[in-house]
Amino acid sequence: MDISLKGKHALICGSTQGIGLATAKVLAGLGAHCILMARNEDGLQAAMKELAQDESQEHSYVVADFSIKQQLSDAIHKITTEHPVAILINNTGGPKAGPITKANSEDFESAFQQHLIGNHLLATAVLPGMKKLGYGRIINIISTSVKTPLPNLGVSNTIRAAVASWAKTLSNEVGIYQITVNNILPGLTDTARLGSLIESTAESQKTDVATIKKNMISSIPMARFGQAEEIANVVAFLASPAASYVTGTSIRVDGGRTPAI
């Protein structure tokens, strides 16, 4: 099975921590030239030091905030001018937690811009290069809420579903060019994002963090939170030549927690 990414340029968004950083480390280990993108330059510089690198690899980073459209547009223009991107990992922090009845229109507009519009802007920018290469992998890190809406994540549930529908539509249109588009749906993964969600849920339910954590773990058949590296390993497979006939899918990596088939 060919999972080597040697010689391929991979753009990994949100790559200073959590699933994004874990993905960058795995892809670098498989030989990819990693281009890290995030809004925190200090974090990007620190992340660069964690990537495996041999004499043939050239890693780099670019600073961009997904909530600032022009900044994101300038960043991807610079990247595609310098390199043909073969792998795009769309990954950015989720909208803040809270019930949908407490959300306002600005919350939805901001999340739509940051997630769907940002993903689309990057994808359409890298598509010409992928077509020339005859190889392309667009992978979106979203959420199991695509299958089952999650409590206290009203805005996130709404926007994540929109991204999944966008991705399926895109996969149908670009498959002829041997470009695949897939979604990864992480379950409860031990990251800073999960920690924030646990604290928010504990506050809204007027209970303690330990109780919320225990209840969450009890809902997972594997009886533990996932690790960022476990999500990254599935991303790496989808990014590889071995996944050449997998497209238009939403793959759960959640320890069996999602109740839907």
UniProtKB/TrEMBL annotation:
Signal sequence extent: none
Entry-linked Gene3D superfamilies: NAD(P)-binding Rossmann-like Domain
Family the entry assigns: Belongs to the short-chain dehydrogenases/reductases (SDR) family.
Protein name: SDR family oxidoreductase
Organism: Pedobacter gandavensis
